[in-house]
Each structure stands twice: as structure tokens, then as C-alpha cells.
Write a structure and sequence with these properties.
Elements: H1 8-16, H2 24-28, E1 33-38, E2 42-47, H3 53-62, E3 67-69, E4 76-78, E5 82-84, E6 86-92, H4 95-100, H5 106-116, E7 122-128, E8 136-141, H6 144-150, H7 164-169, E9 174-178, H8 180-192, H9 194-199, E10 202-206, H10 214-223, E11 231-235, E12 245-249, E13 254-257, H11 259-266, H12 273-276, E14 288-292, E15 295-296, E16 302-303, E17 311-315, H13 318-329, E18 333-337, H14 343-346, H15 348-366, E19 373-375, H16 379-384, H17 388-410
Parallel strand pairs: 3-19, 7-9, 9-10, 10-14
Antiparallel strand pairs: 1-2, 4-5, 6-17, 6-18, 7-8, 11-12, 12-13, 14-17, 15-16
Helix pairs in contact: 5-6, 5-13, 15-17
The structure holds flavin-adenine dinucleotide.
Length: 411
């Protein structure tokens, strides 16, 4: 089939491998772009008709692949963690949501409160794909059962903005849960389009170490000795904290592997390039963002022993702060104090990626690769927290990776 020439922006994004796979472009221009699974298993837009110059400019305005702007607006602005009003820990007071949730089920508890208080008509979230148990699909939840079914983190590609056009046309008010990059796109659109702001009055996110490809999910299955055809259901974690990556087979039996091994030894090796140069793994554009509030050991490293789940809850906007207070007053969420000084120890992946980012971007720039434009993300401040030698190692590591990639493309 004849493919139209890619738009200038999409061509740049493809050249720099910058797409995060949020689906906002397909959601905004559904007659011209469609999301599809591309090797090695990432969601990418395919152009089905040419974009006009004006549409291409519009895309550059909201596409998170191309960059992000953060404005502090009087909030505390932590060099690594970004602007926020309050950080606490918390968990859903409903035992089933807390158990099913990735950490404390705080996101699910907040979503349930939003639905039951009538603040929103429905929730846009991600759940397991009905066809491919290791993959994701976007779902619209309108009741408790839907939220419970969507609880838990799914370490696979998701494009929750791909149906944006339909959602806007529905006239409903949605709570939106997505990756930090999904929220960057949606927030930018909402800031510029009243109809988007009206349809998505609240945006929730989670800390995100990056999106692994579907190949990563298949490798987890291989590691537990399971053929994809045998799988009826698959969860990446949850049912405990952190819970195990678990395949429920068609014969009813289960095979599983620990979170430490599934994420640490398999999935983290399949994370897309864009996520390795992400300046915002912590949802800086969201109203509330949740994460794992791991305990740390004597050496200051996170401990992944099974426990009752506890989420970190970061209120980034006045709206988010109010929502959390209302959900707590309604008995949906229980909270406890949290000292931000502990965060760098329990989130080593986020900490190191932030500190390494400037060096990685400089290497890509030197190699002539397109890179995202970041403003207000404290790149220099974060890099200064690294010793010079570590910055040099990150710089050389990224340079080597680009050059090796080029050589293998030629060979
Ligand atoms: C790819 C990925 C990377 C992550 N990296 C980190 C990290 O580095 N550090 C950290 O502390 N936490 C990370 N998390 C988040 C963490 O696993 C929990 O989501 C967080 O602790 C909140 O848990 P909860 O129990 O409050 O949420 P829950 O109540 O379990 O709710 C989770 C919500 O997230 C939605 N969701 C799940 N998977 C996806 C997805 N792929 N795309 C969009 N929405 C999704 C669900 O629909 C649900 O609404 C990551 C999650 C994902 C999906």
C-alpha cells in the first residue's frame, strides 16, 4: 500500500526514535494517523494520509516526544522531583483495591472517589488486553468493578490518548490516568483548548521508569516456561506489594516470577529509547502522581519484600491537593506523613536517570541526533548532583550506543 510522506515532525521523531507511544497524534488526527504495534513491540503512529502544514505545527505543539515545558507557579520545585504542594504516603481503605493495586491502590481509591462523588462521569485508564494477555488496552470505567479490573501496573505499551477524538465527542467528563508523557500531551492540549480542559478536569499519573516492548513481556513468559498460546490472563504485578508477574494458564494453573526478577532482569532491558532520555518520569504535569513508597534497607536501597501496599502520593496542583483531602475525608484513602528527603534513596532508577540526562542529551546532540526540548526541568541542577566522572561515563555510553547503532544500520 502507498504510504504518504511522513510529516516533518513525525520524520524527525522517527529519526531520533523519540516517540513515547502516547497516541495523542492519532487521537487528534484520526483520519490521518493510526497507532499500531511496530517491531520490537512498541505502539507507533502510522501515517495514512498527509498532514497539512497547520496540522503538523499543531502536532509539534502537543507531542511529548518533542519536549516539555514545566512552570513552577510558586510551588516548591525539587531539583529531581519537580514542582509539588505536598508529598504523603497513602493507600486505598478498600482491602481489595489495596491488594490488587500496584502499591497501595491509592490511584484506584482516588478514581473510585471521583466516580462516586460525581466529579466525573467515567475514568479513562489501562487494563489488560482482551486478546493478548501481556498487552494493554484503553478502557472506560464507570463503576467500581471497572476500577478494580484496571488496578495494578502494566509494564507494556499503552496509548490511552489514541481515542481522544471520540472521548471529546462524547460530552462526558473523565478522570484520566496515564504515563507522565500521556499527561504532558493532554495537559498541553487542555491548556490551549477549552473543550479538552472541560472533558478532562483531573489528570492522575504514576512515576514511570519507562515502557518495555511487547518482546519484553514475551521474554517474561519464556522465563517462566510459558507459551503465549497457553495464557488466559497475565498481570505484571499487584495482588500484594509488589506482587509477582503472574500468568494464569488456560488450564487454571499459575506460573510466576518475582517483581525483582521480572522488572530487573527482563523488562528493564526492553525499555524504549525515548524513556532513557525522559526528563519527567515523575508526572510533573499531573494533578496527583503516585509511586511505590518502598521501605529502604540500612544501605539506603529499596526493599522489595512482600508487604501491605503503600503508595507515595504527590499532590502537584491545588486541585490535586483538594481531591486527596476530599477522598481522605470520605474515607476512601488513608494517608501518612512522608519526608521528601527519603525519596532519592527509594527511587534509585528515577534519581540516576535524572542525574544522567544532561550528559546523555549532549552526546546525542553531538552525534547530530534530534533530541527533545526541555524547559524548566532543572537538567543542569540534576547533573551537578553527579560526580564529573559519572557524567563523562554517561556521555560516552550514549555516544557509543548511537555510533554502534549507525554502524549496524549500515552493515
Ligand atoms: C511502565 C511503568 C513504569 C513504572 N515505573 C515506576 C517507577 O520507576 N517508580 C515507581 O515508584 N513506580 C513506578 N510505576 C508505578 C507503580 O508501579 C504504581 O503505579 C504506583 O506505585 C501507583 O500504585 P497504586 O497502587 O497507587 O496504583 P493502582 O491503584 O494500581 O492504579 C494503577 C493505575 O495505573 C493505570 N496503568 C497501569 N499500567 C498502565 C500503563 N502501562 N499505562 C497507563 N496507565 C497504566 C491503571 O489503569 C490504574 O488506573 C510504574 C508503572 C508503570 C506502568
Amino acid at each position: 500500500m502507498h504510504e504518504p510522506r511522513p510529516s516533518k515532525n513525525l520524520a524527525d521523531i522517527a529519526k531520533g526514535d523519540l516517540c513515547a507511544g502516547c497516541g495523542a497524534c492519532a487521537g487528534m488526527f484520526p483520519d490521518k494517523l493510526a497507532m499500531e504495534m511496530s517491531p520490537p513491540g512498541f505502539l507507533r503512529p502510522r501515517q495514512i494520509a498527509p498532514l497539512t502544514g497547520a496540522e503538523d505545527d499543531c502536532l509539534a505543539g502537543f507531542c511529548p516526544a518533542l519536549g516539555q515545558v514545566v512552570e513552577t507557579q510558586g510551588r516548591t520545585d525539587d531539583t529531581l522531583w519537580g514542582p509539588y504542594l505536598e508529598m504523603q504516603t497513602g493507600w486505598s481503605t478498600a482491602p481489595d483495591l489495596r491488594f490488587a493495586g500496584a502499591s497501595g491502590g491509592a490511584l484506584s481509591g482516588l478514581l473510585l472517589h471521583l466516580l462516586e462523588s460525581g466529579d466525573v462521569d467515567a475514568v479513562v485508564q489501562i487494563a489488560a488486553s482482551a486478546d493478548t494477555p501481556i498487552a494493554n488496552q484503553t478502557v472506560i470505567s464507570t463503576d467500581r468493578a471497572g476500577i478494580l479490573a484496571g488496578a495494578g501496573s502494566r509494564y507494556a505499551p499503552s496509548a490511552p490518548l489514541a481515542q481522544l477524538g471520540q472521548l471529546l465527542a462524547s460530552g462526558q467528563r473523565y478522570a484520566f490516568v496515564g504515563k507522565p508523557c500521556d499527561i504532558v500531551a493532554l495537559r498541553t492540549l487542555a491548556n490551549n483548548r477549552p473543550e479538552v480542559a472541560a472533558a478532562f478536569p483531573i489528570m492522575l499519573s504514576f512515576f514511570c521508569a519507562g515502557v518495555p516492548s511487547e518482546t519484553g513481556g514475551r521474554e517474561v513468559l519464556a522465563a517462566i516456561g510459558v507459551d503465549p498460546e497457553m495464557v488466559a490472563r497475565f498481570r505484571y504485578r499487584g495482588q500484594g506489594w509488589p506482587g509477582r508477574a503472574t500468568a494464569v494458564l488456560k488450564d487454571g494453573s499459575e506460573r510466576s516470577m518475582s517483581y525483582h526478577d521480572s522488572w530487573g532482569s527482563v523488562l528493564s532491558k526492553h525499555v524504549q529509547h525515548r524513556c532513557k532520555i525522559c526528563a519527567d518520569g515523575t508526572g510533573k504535569a499531573a494533578d496527583i502522581v503516585c509511586a511505590d513508597a518502598w521501605e529502604s534497607d540500612a544501605a539506603g536501597y529499596p526493599v522489595f519484600d512482600e508487604a501491605e501496599g503503600i503508595s507515595l502520593i504527590v499532590s502537584r496542583t491545588a486541585l490535586g491537593e483538594r481531591l486527596l483531602k476530599e477522598a481522605a475525608a470520605a474515607g476512601r484513602i488513608e494517608t501518612a506523613a512522608f519526608d521528601v528527603a527519603h525519596l532519592a534513596a527509594i527511587q534509585p532508577g528515577q534519581r540516576e536517570r535524572r542525574r544522567a540526562l544532561l550528559a546523555r542529551l549532549l552526546a546525542l546532540r553531538l552525534a547530530g541526533q534530534p533530541i527533545p526540548r526541555y524547559r524548566g526541568l532543572n537538567l543542569w541542577g540534576a547533573a551537578r548532583q553527579n560526580p564529573a566522572l559519572r557524567n563523562l561515563k554517561n556521555f560516552l555510553g550514549m555516544l557509543r550506543r548511537v555510533l554502534r547503532h549507525r554502524l549496524s544500520d549500515k552493515g
